[in-house]
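User: Fold both of these, please.

Assistant: Here is the first one.
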Amino acid sequence: MDDANEVIGQPNILCNADTIDMQFRTKRQFAGKVYVKGSYNKPECRVDYSSKTADGRPKGGIRLNHGACNMDRQRMITPDGMMFSTVLIISFHPLFVTRMDKAYHIKCMYREAARTVTAALDVSNLPTEAVQSDLPMPTCSYTIRSDQLDGSVLKYARVGDQVVHRWECNSDEYGLLVHSCYVEDGQGEKQMIIDENGCHTDHLLLGDPTYVEALNMAYRESFVFKFADRVAVRFQCEIRLCLKDEGGCEGITPPMCNRKAPPTETNSISDVNPYRMHDQTLPIKRTKRSNAIFRPKDADLYSQTVYVLDGSQEGESNKDEAALPLTHEYVPQNGVCLGPTGLAWMATFMSLALISIISVAIFVFYKKVSR
């Protein structure tokens, strides 16, 4: 590997109709690899380079089909459209990641085209009424917090740590429904944990979300878990937005799970939830508009990636020692092997025997002296 080689400028990203291309230049002949982060072992997700262009410059680039190599596909609200994103790594060393390598988070946004429908009617003139949607779409987020609702956004954790999943949209006009949630390991494996109705599928992993009165935030306490032999976890959920004005969220959120009443704020986090106090003391602003012009809208939310450790080395060592059978005794054919209990009894017996021997010796000594 040549330490003097490096990427020149920024890569050129082409967002095509069905593919994403990345082209780049380096100072010297590039003979390394370009691959999708987390998918190096998949041949279709990496490219080796050893040729160069007619002018002697290195030829470098990669083309990925939409959705290939665990590419993220996210429906967006603001702006309205579809975003495809992935992380590409330019590696100069044939085997290892070094200081010369570069990682780029590639995002391609495909916006939905506005459609206008017109029709000519040969009828008498009628008065027209202007109806428009003047409410801005909210910005929504999905974060995993440490310990409590307003805890720090988590990046590293241990299995069993308490966390809070938090879904939120920054608008008092819209309500949200959290549904179709998956946990994924970043390498293609994923498992559903909240179904399409907004109800949990495995209470040990994540329970039913709790919704605040304003319906613009939901949350759920949980404990950290991970896939076997995997380090990272990330969560993906769909949210459905509804306009609360004139009952536009009725029948949409909160969900009815297991034919029980919707989750209410009765747990420890809810008792001190500042957002609930906000909802009770401040009235929700109403806008004069018709719900007929707004249909419930779905979008995708991703949490941050959390890197999960099994536990500290010290904790694992103590755990292993605690698991040893303390009273087990085994007698082999060619000798005697005592467990901790047997050793304790042997120590007691030897102590008593030593005390007895010393007592007899003292008695004999004084008897000889008295003569």
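And the second sequence with its predicted structure:
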Amino acid sequence: MTNFSSRFFFFPLLIIAIVLHFAVFGDSPHNPYGIKGLNELYLAICIIFTILLLLASAEDAPREFRILMYYCAYTTVVFLVMPAIFAYYTYGQPIVFGLIEERRVLAALGFAPLLFLGKRVSTLQFERAFLYAALIAAFFSWCFKFGVIPDMRPEVRSDDRPDRSSIGPFLICLAYFYCIQIWSKGASPISGAARSKTLYLVIAAVLLMTLVFATQTRQLIVLCLAFTLFCLRAKAIIWAASLSILLSPFYFYPSLLEVLGLNVEFYDSTFEGVEDGARSVTIALIFDHLKQVNWLPSGSLSLMWQDGFIPYFGEHFFLSDVGIIGTLFRFGFLTFLIVPMTLFVYHRIAKNIASDMSFIYATMLALFVIWPLNGLFEYGQSVIAMLFVIHALRARYLRSQEPIHERRAYPQLQGSY
């Protein structure tokens, strides 16, 4: 009965939860298949589910669940509540609008349903659900690329590059990381069970090609390449040489790229040093503002309240495009305290769950590479939460392998039952 319920109930439910967690069909300007209000519905489900789980578990909650609740509590207070308070004192924006603006931070609560469902399926089923969800995102990305399914957005701005899609990009990235980790070790990062290197390398190639040809987001491609180097380390030279050989036809015959549908002009602008006007203007405005307010925290404004930042900085001011610089705007001089403290807290949380940090280290180092362009703490909580879920499942598996009389000697492996 357990096998039946895990295969036909929890397994498909886990796929749906991962798809929702990474907003594969979430409403955004770059998602051609976004459903309005779906992200907010998922966040509401996470909040209600976490509360119910807390009430049901009370003092008997699994150790990993209690530890990750500390992660959620810290993240919510620092990156959701504090910016709302700062915006209230700086601009007079009601706190509720500040909470709405930073609601994506609540993706940290997504760990609860994912961990709950992940414990009710086998390791192989969890990995398959994770990869199936990523392949669903990749499938719809290619469908949009080739016009199989028409764009469902009511309006597409001319400067938004209509050929570009953003369908679960961070899910595709993290699944690529997972495949590369398995290809590197030949074993599951959770259970250590042997896995087919060839199969996961093929899946990794499909996911990477999706990001290059369909998603077409430069920072995500850099993110994948950075993880590959950090993960493979000694094998990185062989990997780079193999890539050079595989890509050599495109070097000698650039027209092949256009045949495959690659936006050559878009990627070529990277090497010509063309600046993103909106991003450079935003950064300049932020530093001018910080000087004027003596580096005091300013929080963030919501478009739902008096047009947000538009009256102050114009229509092309977006904190989401400038990564750590946006964090500076929100927290001012406190950034130099909050950032290292947050990294320390997250590291302690992970270490208290399990000591094997290889996958988390490689992923976080890769995320640091694109930190100047993407807010890690404000917009990357879905990735961080999933990392902690994988880490907790790893701890649970290691715990299950220990003899009962030895379990008390490994407190970092207890819990998750």
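The mean pLDDT is 83.
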